Structure formats: structure tokens, C-alpha cells
Amino acid sequence: MVIRRTLMIKTPEHLAIIGKITGVYGIKGWVKIHSDTQPMENIFSYGDWQVCMNGQWTTVKVRSWRPHGKGIVAALDDCQDRTLAQKYCQCEVAVPKEVLPSGDNGEFYYHQLEKLLVVTADNVVLGRIDHMFNTGSNDVMVVKPSKESIDGRERWVPYADQYLQEISLEDGVVKVDWDPEF
After folding, report:
1. At the fourth CATH level, which superfamily is domain 110-176?
2. Taking a C-beta distance cutoff of 8 angstroms, is the pair 30, 74 a contact?
3. Of 114, 117, 131, 125, which is closest to residue 8 (Cα–Cα)?
4. 0.85 surpassed by pTM
5. From the centroid of its chain, how far is CA 174?
6. Which of 87, 105, 136, 149 lies at a 20 to 30 A Cα distance from 160?
7. How far is CA 132 from the centre of its chain?
8. Which CA distances in Å does 113 have to 30, 173, 175?
9. Sequence-ordered list of residues with C-beta below 8 angstroms from that of 90, at least 6 positions apart, any chain
10. C-alpha closest to that of 74 among 134, 22, 13
11. Where are the domains of the chain?
12. What does the pLDDT look like over 55-109, one tens digit per residue?
């Protein structure tokens, strides 16, 4: 499962955000990693990373990594000290979408859900999924108004079984049990 956060820089269509470099670790150029993959170690399973630095996407190789507390840390090929590692802080980590494994039946990557139309059980159009994020207890679909929607309101709809009725990538629709007034 991959989550995409709101970004200031547009992510190229062929890339999927899988995490973020959140800080430096130690003095030898290691960085702290927030992984959006499950399990979190899978962030290292997809080959070289693409990171966005100063508005430009560039390839980064991970030299080594290890678990650290409840998270993970990594050494990047071109980082030998803390000062070099700081330039990667707050950089999104992405990989080409084609390297991601196919999901099991009923499993979706969040990038597959972006731009899908969100409709209620009564076929009221709420808008389109702009992006998704995790609150710690559940994931949330950020539904932005579209030309098809009933109003100009943005909605945050929990991505949880109790609200999801159907997801059809073929039809481009997510059907939800959600009150349009909420």
C-alpha cells in the first residue's frame, strides 16, 4: 500500500511516492526514512529511488539500511557526512510505478485511486480523489470538487471498509456510504 502526500512539486505520472526522508541520523551521512509501504522495509525492495530536490527529480542509490527503534535509517551512496545528508531532508521518495507488484484482488495502490470519481450510495457525486494521507488510525481520501460534483466543497472521507462500498478502476468510480452534507 502506498500513500501519496500533498506535494508542492507535481509528481511525474510514471512515479509513485513511497516515503519521505525525514531527517539526518548520526554524523556519517545516514538519514531517517518514513516509509509508506507495508511492511515499512519494503521501501528498499524497488531498486533505486527518485527524490525531488529543489524541484528536480534525481536518482538516489541506497548503500545500506537498518531498522532503528520504530523506524528505519539508510545510508545513501553520495552521503558521507551529516552536512551532505541534510540536503535530502524532507525529500519525497518515489519509484517507477511499473516496479510495484500487482495488488491482490481488492487491494489498490493509492496512486491508482487518484482522480477517481467519488459517488455516494444514492449516486450523488462528491468530486474526485485528489490525494490520500494517513492519520495514524486510518487513511483518508481527500475529495476535491469537480465539474460533476454537487457543490464546491472539499471532503475528507475515511478510506475504511465501513464507508467503502465499491471501487471500480475500469469505471473510474469509488462508491461510498457517506452523507453528502458532511
Report:
1. PRC-barrel domain (2.30.30.240)
2. yes
3. 131
4. no
5. 18
6. 149
7. 7
8. 33, 9, 12
9. 20, 21, 22
10. 22
11. 15-99, 110-176
12. 889 999 999 999 999 899 999 998 999 999 999 999 999 999 999 988 777 788 8
Q: Which of 80, 77, 75 is nearest to 31 (CA)?
A: 75
Mapped to the 3 state alphabet, what secondary structure does the chain carry? CCCCCCCCCCCCCCEEEEEEEEEEECCCCEEEEEECCCCHHHHHCCCCEEEEECCEEEEECEEEEEEECCEEEEEECCCCCHHHHHCCCCCEEEEEHHHCCCCCCCCCCHHHHCCCEEEECCCCEEEEEEEEEECCCCEEEEEECCCCCCCCCCEEEEECCCCEEEEECCCCEEEECCCCCC
Grid cell, residue 151, equals 457543490
**Amino acid in the structure at residue 18:** I
Q: Pull the grid cell for residue 37.
A: 509501504
b (16+ CB within 10 A) / e for 60-99: bebeebeeeeeebbbbbeebeeeeebeebeebbbbbeeee
List pLDDT tens digits, range 18-46.
999 999 999 999 999 999 888 899 999 99
Q: Please state the CATH superfamily assignment of the domain spanning residues 15-99 in this structure.
A: RimM (2.40.30.60)
Please tell me the least confidently modeled range out of 24-28, 42-46, 132-136, 167-171.
132-136
Pairing of strands 173-176, 117-120: parallel
